[in-house]
Design goal:
Helices cover 48% and strands 10% of the residues. The protein has 122 residues and is mainly alpha-helical. The chain has one domain (2-117): Rossmann fold (3-Layer(aba) Sandwich). The strands form two sheets. It has a two-stranded parallel ribbon with strand order 1-2. It has a two-stranded parallel ribbon with strand order 3-4. α5 packs across α6. The longest helix is centred in the last third of the chain and has 13 residues, at 85-97. It starts with a helix and ends in a 5-residue tail after the last strand. This is Type II toxin-antitoxin system VapC family toxin. Residues 5-110 form the PIN domain. InterPro entries: PIN-like_dom_sf, PIN_dom, PIN_Sll0205, TA_system_RNase.
């Protein structure tokens, strides 16, 4: 989704495009996001090449955000408004790091995390 924003894709919400395009903002991609992609590929829900995705992340100059103990400490304190463990970990990382989470998940607004929605709809 982040790569599409640089191309001005109309599906990407303006606020999200502005956050990504702002030169002063560091764009971090969580290893949890890559892990979720790999899980979807393995169960046949997604056709993607993880090597191509990592190459695109690197080509854009985005930084990888590894999972660290402080993220898990934030995770244990999150309420359970829904059950997606990947979403929970991404929110915990954003909280622990003081970051804004870019997500199209409708459940994110129920959590105490700064966020921007990723899409303008289908």
């Amino acid at each position: 989704m982040m790569c599409l924003a640089f191309a001005g894709d109309p599906r990407i919400e303006r606020k999200a495009q502005d956050l990504i395009a702002e030169i002063a903002n560091d764009i971090l991609v969580s290893t949890a996001s890559l892990w979720k992609i790999v899980v979807k590929v393995r169960v046949g829900k997604l056709d993607a090449d993880i090597s191509d995705i990592v190459a695109a992340i690197n080509a854009q100059g985005f930084e990888m955000l590894d999972i660290r103990p402080e993220h898990l400490e934030a995770l244990v304190r999150l309420p359970m408004h829904h059950r997606d463990p990947f979403d929970h970990l991404l929110m915990a990382q954003a909280i622990a790091e003081g970051l804004t989470l870019l997500s199209e998940d409708q459940h994110v607004s129920a959590y105490p995390v700064a966020h921007a929605t990723g899409t303008n709809g289908p």
